[in-house]
Each structure stands twice: as structure tokens, then as C-alpha cells.
Design a protein that fits this description.
alpha/beta, six-stranded antiparallel β-sheet, 33 strands, binds (2S,3S,4S,5R)-3,4,5-trihydroxy-6-oxo-oxane-2-carboxylic acid, 7 helices, single chain, eight-stranded parallel β-barrel
Length: 614
Amino acid sequence: MKNIVKALVFILLLSQNTWANDLITNIPNRKTTTLNGKWHYIVDPYENGFYNYRQDAFDASPDLEGNTAAYYNNAKPKNVSERIEYDFDRSETMMVPGDWNSQKEKLFYYEGTVWYKKSFDYKKSADGRVFVYFGGANYRADVYLNGKKLGVHIGGFTPFNFEVTDILKEKDNFLIVKVDNKRYRDAVPTVNTDWWNYGGLTRDVKLVEVANTFIKDYALRLKKGTNNQLLGFIQLDGAKASQKVTVEIPEVNSKYTVKTDANGYAELKFKADKLQLWSPESPKLYKVVLTSDSESLADQIGFRTIETKGMDIMLNGKSIFLRGICSHEENGMRGGRAFSEEDAYMLLSRVKELGANFIRLAHYPHNEYVARLADEMGILLWEEVPVYWTISWENPETYKNAENQLTELITRDKNRASVIIWSMANETPISEPRNKFLRSMIKHARSLDPSRLVSAALEKHSKEGEPNTMVIGDPIVEDVDILGFNQYIGWYGGTPESCDNVKWELNYNKPAIITEFGGGALQGLHGASNEVWTEEYQENLYKHTLDMLKRIPQFRGVTPWILTDFRSPRRHLPVVQDGWNRKGLMSEKGEKKKAYYVLQNLYIDIINNGFKFK
Ligand code: GCB
């Protein structure tokens, strides 16, 4: 009984400090000190350093401040008689950011706990406040500085930060993070996915120094239907919450002053004339400067509107076709999770070369570099949270977790003009609890950001009694702006030629994006067009699928699955797969397959002649 009570208290405490949203935004333009580089690590599959190792897990408190057995205390023997059975400084190192699977052969398949330690000195300014910021850690991170617990973060792909102002010393700080990537039925994503579960501190780690009262967050965007009215908010954090703040766009001589309320909040609403609107053809960004009593913070923001009108997607009031492609966050050239600005540049350059103007960042939030660079390079983005396949729809903690990941993503990227769609989920079987879950997510997304479109990658079904007629019989269609759906006719069932006889009945006056189609091919494997795994089969499949999609009246965008081959623990066919999902238009090394050119030709044609298919 005592153990159960302890476990319940622990779970309660966990849920309290896990979902608090205190995210600081616009990290790239703030005063930061990197903690990237070599970190010592200890692989701890039995969680020895977390629970007192002489007892079983539930009989121990995971917060053993001062207990030398707890690894986050970074203890050292004080004399020759003291026995301490770990030592970070004599343990191996690995690079942060970076997943552990691709850095250490022995950790390739590892799913469990790894402890990381970084030592550093830091002198902060007299009245500054300091936070430790993580771009992402997969999946659960327990963070400690100098033996004090800062908090827990759950969710492998979104940023988080903790204040360390009062714990930080000028010399010999030790930051210890327990990262655990075990999969759980009730987690988001759940146990089964079709991508590699890369563990570790997979994104940048930084110290962020801000003023005592600082600009924690803000939004600035163009009001729909206008080209000169700006809306948004500003949120200060600190003792002097109520003060005057100015927002300036120097290039168009726009300056606006507002007073924040007792909670540090103010709405922004002002005019800026002669703004050149952001678009993929002309990705104009403006320097925006926010100035409070104690600090000045700049950002580079593009202004555009995004809406739907009947079956059209309207960017700045004009109908567009989304020439897209899906991508995972992986760099197959190097192996492992993509994490750097160079990785983002490689992805976006490849997308440009394909003739695309749109990426579906599947199936979870990618790193911030991608959205920042997409703003600069003029590429539109679909951003998604890992509500994938069969989540525990009825568990309220699972819902809170998913909603929190969505909050963190929207908080981070809401000022990026490139991001036009928030996606709630991928291929989630219809049921009442699932519908309720997704509807709450959609409501939440709209409350945080009323300016963007909301969608989800849904599933198609055959019409009853008419196997060749496809419908989207999903009630969630009513709740989203864009009808997004995946379909694999010619791969998971049927031949590529069977696409020719398929009729689509999408009885909705909404634009449709076909969020996935495709088939596997091993780059360099050639044969007849009916021979699976050959480039010719994939090429033929692309031809027949695209011809079929052109017959859908609502067809306004497509993101084939997928730009490059990616690692998946579900793909076991020797020689062909060997642990890789082969649906890429390129191999993991970037070598193009024949189907690449089918898609590229379509995109060039749309660029030259528009998209009037019907
Ligand atoms: C899907 C999933 C995607 C998979 C893909 C496949 O429908 O959304 O994550 O990787 O199919 O290759 O089967």
C-alpha cells in the first residue's frame, strides 16, 4: 500500500511539473552560450543511478538529493575507503547534439536510459536571469544542475527550458540529464511507428541569458484579408511585468507602443503600410525589433495570409497548388537524426531542386533550423505532432502529452511565415474516443493560433459495395480546413494500373492534399515495371497515381512518401531493405531513382502552366 501511495504521489508530481509551458521563444536572436560538444555519458538500462540501487524501483524516491548513489549528484569518493560505483569523468563521451544510436555502435538498437554530463563555468551579469534550453531530447528528460532537480520534459521533438539563475555558479557547474527513449503504450508516439527511435540529446543545448524582466514570447502576423494590419501579442516575464514596449519594423517606418498589463501581457494591433508580402517566389523577411525597458530583441518575420476558399488554398488571396514532398528528420549521408543548420540546408536545397514549394515535415516536429531556413528560402511547411496510428485515445494523460507537444510546437514556430498548416495526426483509425481527442487538439490549435490552417493525414476507404470508389468517411473532415489523406493504391493492394479505374468521391467543398502515396524501390535495382522493389515499378506507380489524383476536383496539393529512404526497425527484407524504408525518391545517400523525375516533371509543368488539371 505504502508503495502504491508513493508511486501515485510520484506520478502526480510528475504530471504537475511536466506540462507547464514556460517556453522562451526566438532563441537564435538572444544572448546564448552553447553547451554543445562532448558530454560524458553512462548507459544505465536498469536505472541504477535513478533509484536507490539496493531496492526495487517503487520502493525508492527518485529524488535523492545528496545521496552519492544517485548519478545526478556526480559524486566523487572523498577518501580511499569510500565506494562510489560510477564516475562520469572516467566514462566515455559523445557529441551533443546527436542521437546515441548512430554515434556508438553498441547503442544502435538501445532503448532505455543514458545519463549525460556536461561541466561548465559561467559568469552571468549582475541582474541577468539564466535558463538552460534544450532544442529537443528523445523521449523523456530528467534534468539536474549541480545536484538540484530542474524538472522533467516528456516528448521527443519539442524544446523546453528551465531557469537556473539561483543554482548557477561561476565555476564547476555540472549539468546532468537522464534521457530515456523507452516506448510506452500510453506515450505520444505510442510503441509502434515506422521510423527509428533515435535516443538522446538530439538538438542544441544552450544557456540563455535574459534581462530580469524579459520578453518571453510574442506573435506578429498579418490580419486575414488585409495587407497592412498587424495583430499579435507580447508576453513579458519578471518582476516589472507592467511596462511600455515598442514594436518596430524599421524598413517600413512602422513603430507601435503598447503597455503590458500586470501579468506582462499586451495585445498588438497596428498598421504597417507598404509591406511586401512573403511568398515562395519572394520570401521577404522584415527585421522586427521589440524593445522593453530592459532589453531589445530582434526577429526576422515574413508577412502573408493563408486561407481556404471553397476548394482552393489561398496564399495572400491567390489560389496556389502545393507541390510537396514528405520528409523525416534524418540525414542518411551521415546516418542518424538531422539536427544542424547544414542538415536543414541539405533538405531544403533538395526540395527546391525537385521543383517543390512545400514539405510535409513528418511525423513529429523537426528542429527549428528547418522552419527558419524555409522562411529564408521560400518553402511552405506542414508541421505535425506524433499522434500516429493507435494512440491511447481514452487516457487523459496521453491527451495532455499530445496537447503539450502541440503547444510547444506552435509556441516555437508561430512567427514563421513558411508554416501554413498544423497537422494533428497521421492515419488514426476512426472511433468516438479518437474523434473526441482530435477535436480537442484542433480546438486547442485554433485557440493558440487562429491564423493558420489545420489538417490531419486521414485514411481513405472504399465505398460500400463499390470497391473502386474511394471516399473519406471520416467525421474529422468537418473539423479541419484541409482534407488531408494518405493512399497507397498500387502498393498496399492492387497494381499501379488499378489506379486507372479508381473513382474518388470526396463530397466536401474543401481543398484536398494527398499527404502520402508511394512504393518501395531499391536505388539501382532495375527490372520490369510490374516487378516490385525495382525503380521501374516505383516510376510506373508514380505515373498512374498522379494521373489518378489529377481527376480529383479538390486536388490542391500532394506530398508523396517520401524524399529519401529512411531507417525503420520494421523493414527486414534482406538486400532490399536491411532496416530501411525504401519509398524514397532518393536513396539515403541522395542518389535519385527514376520516380524522382516523374514528380519533378509534373512540378516543372505546374510551375510553367499552372495546375488546371480537370
Ligand atoms: C504510412 C505511414 C508512414 C509509413 C508509410 C509506409 O502510411 O504514414 O509513416 O512509413 O505508410 O511506408 O508504409
